[in-house]
Amino acid sequence: MSLVYDRVALIGLGLIASSMFWAMKRRSLAGEVRGYARSSQTRDTARRIGVCDQVCDNLQDAVKDADLIVLCIPVGAMGNVAKEIAPVMKRGATLSDVGSVKRAVIDEVAPHVPDGVHFVPAHPLAGTEHSGPESGFESLYDNRWCLLIPQDGPDPDAVARLRALWEGMGANVDLMDADHHDLVLAVTSHAPHLIAYTMVGVADDLRRVTDTEVINYSAAGFRDFTRIAASNPTMWRDVFLSNKEATLEILGRFTEELFALQRAIRLGDGDHLHDYFTRTRAIRRGIIDAGQDTNLPNFGRGNEIDKKDQ
Ligand code: NAP
């Protein structure tokens, strides 16, 4: 791959930004990458481990000469930061973000985008439960999807360039409308996270099962919930507060299905349960066939940590 942008500014230096930095360096997609984080602690860590060619102590210094600025901060903070950087963004630059919710980000950020700056929101569908500059790695976006949400009358070159960057970082790119994005993500990510948070919270509340039992005998199902429920609390608070409608709609559907399964269990309706589980198994098959997860048993984990799974 070759150079896509001369100068890139990453605002926020956590998992997503640091992974972008390593992925851009891997294929020399950017000439210079400047970074900024609000806390000196995060900036010091980024400098120590070499995340970004230059870490700036000041937001405007990171942004002023950049051809691409990417907001890699919690969704709820994006509007204020866009307002702060608006006066220093250069004409012809592209402003993007990586937020997990799109409609709220567009509503908050778009009013601050100056004339001559192209706003192309994005969302890489890749992540882990870890946070901070040390959690990033160059292959995070390999073979994962990145959705671009071009705004009214976007400059086709600006969209094509951002697409080239994400493809260069290993992602498959698709374009999507903001409201549809939020509904799709409510199904595939936001509602599942809330369910995981609830399940882990319930186990914590169940005093008939001691804490030690929950921890020692956590079988694969519960353990997978705990991984998701360990995700960044600030990020997920903002996701639910800013994707309220779609998440509530999906949770309503979830509750209806849960009641139907509850009823089938109470009535001993094995056929209903079997049919339902056959359908869900096919969805898992589809995810594997699309190359979005491994077919290895137990997600390919070694046996050592599974000794207590019986
Ligand atoms: P992260 O590792 O926790 O990093 C967040 C960064 O944002 C940190 O540098 C933090 O600065 C900064 N920040 C936090 N609150 C801020 C505020 N109020 N104002 C300005 N900066 C603030 O988070 P991440 O996982 O990279 O997530 C960043 C964005 O990517 C979020 O919008 C999230 O929705 C989206 N996203 C995340 C995932 C995922 O799985 N993690 C996947 C796709 C998209 P300090 O360290 O100085 O506090």
What does this structure look like?
The chain has two domains: 172 residues, NAD(P)-binding Rossmann-like Domain (Rossmann fold, 3-Layer(aba) Sandwich), CATH 3.40.50; 130 residues, 6-phosphogluconate dehydrogenase C-terminal like domain (6-phosphogluconate dehydrogenase C-terminal fold, Orthogonal Bundle), CATH 1.10.3660.10. The N and C termini lie far apart (48 Å). Strands 3-2-1-4-5-6 form a six-stranded parallel beta sheet, with helices on both faces. With 310 residues, it is an alpha/beta fold. The C terminus is likely disordered. It contains twelve helices and nine strands. It binds NADP nicotinamide-adenine-dinucleotide phosphate (NAP). The site of NADP nicotinamide-adenine-dinucleotide phosphate (NAP) has 25 residues, from helix 1.
- Largest sheet, order of strands side by side? 3-2-1-4-5-6
Radius of gyration: 21 Å
What would CATH call the architecture of the largest domain?
Answer: 3-Layer(aba) Sandwich
Helix content class: 40-55%
**Rounded average pLDDT:** 91
Give the count of structural domains: 2
**Main pleated-sheet profile:** 6 strands, parallel
E-strand count:
9
Could you say what the CATH topology of the largest domain is called?
A: Rossmann fold
- CATH homologous superfamily identity of the largest domain: NAD(P)-binding Rossmann-like Domain
Termini gap: 48 Å
The CATH first-level class of the largest domain comes to Alpha Beta
Strand content: 5-15%
Poorly predicted ranges: 304-310
Shape: globular
- Distinct bound molecules: NADP nicotinamide-adenine-dinucleotide phosphate
Question: Helix segment count?
Answer: 12
Order of helices and strands: EHEHEHEHEHEEEHEHHHHHH
Task: Please state the structural category.
Answer: alpha/beta
